[in-house]
Amino acid sequence: MKEQLVSRCSAGLSAVLLTVPLEEPVENEEEILDYMKCLFDPEVQKYIMILFTHGDDLEDLDQTIEEYLKKKDHADLQHLVTECDGKFHSFNNRSKSDRQKQELLHKIEEMMVKNGRRFIMKQMKRRSSMDVAAVMSSGESPAEDPDETDVIPDSKDQIRLVLLGKTGVGKSATGNTIIGRNLFKTSAGSKSETKQCQSKTRVRFGKEIALIDTPGLYDTKLSEDEIKIKIGECITFTSPGPHAFIIVIKVGRFTEEEKNTVKKLKEVFGEQMVNYSMILFTHEKQLKKKNLTIEQYLEEGEPALKELVESCGNRYFCLDNELPSFPQFKDLIRKIETMVAENGHFSNEMFEEAEKCIQEIQKKKLNEKEKRFKRRHKGVKQSEWKKMYWRLAEESRREAKKTFSDSFMAELLMHPHVKGSDIRKALEQVVTLEEKESTIKEAQLEGFRHAEAVQLAITATRKIAKQKMCSVQ
Ligand SMILES: Nc1nc2c(ncn2[C@@H]2O[C@H](COP(=O)(O)OP(=O)(O)OP(=O)(O)O)[C@@H](O)[C@H]2O)c(=O)[nH]1
Ligand SMILES: [Mg+2]
């Protein structure tokens, strides 16, 4: 792409127009902006103007582009405009009027006068190809010959993160900041919002980010055991293991309970989890109001908080979920990548069992898909089959994870007396979600508390699993 640009614009560039459709929420524009700076030179920023299309939507809303950008939920667009030094123009491609074109040309001329000269490509400093490769990396699996490998592919460039912490500290909001979309529901009041582990995946800045939001620790409505079980269920989504446990804490509010956070989490995931943990502070604006840096806050604040950070290898990050997400995401992901480079991903017996189970199901599903595909597409070319194979493998993995989580296995594995090897063979349809739920309901009708009901369900589920195993064999 760079060569093409150099050859076609050898006389230099007057302006670069970054086209952003107004009707869509911001997609990868910030990444594109960053990519352009990497590809050319950071100086190119002075020549970039945002051209918003679908200007006719504004007419329907009876708003000017300035009014539209000022809205609270358009913070990402505002940030994009700020990144381009406030240079933008709105276009309605359906309109036949020449006025909008003249206005655009006028703005470009103003920009040219301000910049004093064109952006000359020959003068660009050479960027290392590594920079560009990093941005371009697609996360695709390697193109090995599927018929010669028995290894089921895993997403190589995926970064799996689990968000943990007390209710209301901003776990879900942090999830949204990291993923760059409002995909996790955040709470409006003081009551707990997130009730179950939830996973969302998005490719951002060339990395596939799998984010797992968890219910709040110390939720008043659930017993400690129930919370541990619920949090442990994240193993389903993070298999073969998370790269980082992100322990979220709100600045200015470090409670007595939170002092025990790491202890509690170690009870769920084991001692080693601290080597993969990072403390993430939310509500950074509160610190800024007091003119404090996070370092000063830690130094001058409660010793217990400093100890908590130290127990996580002194890894911490501070952000504000009310501010634009991309710059914060970029800094955070760099920190996490350093962690990943040192450590790889976390695992323990529970995660290993879960991974074995998932792979078992995946293999079966992939086998079926492969047979079906080859039956339907007799004489398929090897190159096409290669592409198809990786797609089917990824699809099978997604489905396997879903089957695994629906089948109550994650919960089963949370209990030390339940061995994954006992039940692995019968995984595919052994325990359906309906069976799990009806068993719990029955136990609750009998007057058991939820935690006890879960225990009973586990015993009952094992029986069902065994019965099914026998009938399958
Ligand atoms: N100003 C500001 N508000 C924030 C920040 N982070 C979260 N909030 C707000 O705090 C409230 C709680 O945030 P959530 O993300 O729902 O908290 P949570 O930890 O997921 O809560 P549970 O799901 O109940 O465990 C929401 O109204 C968020 O908008 C931040 O950094 N700054
Ligand atoms: Mg939440």
TrEMBL record:
This is GTPase IMAP family member 8-like protein. Belongs to the TRAFAC class TrmE-Era-EngA-EngB-Septin-like GTPase superfamily. AIG1/Toc34/Toc159-like paraseptin GTPase family. IAN subfamily. It comes from Labeo rohita (Indian major carp). PANTHER family: GTPASE IMAP FAMILY MEMBER 2-LIKE-RELATED (PTHR10903:SF188), GTPASE, IMAP FAMILY MEMBER-RELATED (PTHR10903). InterPro entries: G_AIG1 (IPR006703), GIMA/IAN/Toc (IPR045058), P-loop_NTPase (IPR027417). The keyword Nucleotide-binding applies. CDD domains: AIG1. Pfam families: AIG1 (PF04548). Residues 156-355 form the AIG1-type G domain. GO terms for molecular function: GTP binding. Keywords: GTP-binding, Nucleotide-binding.
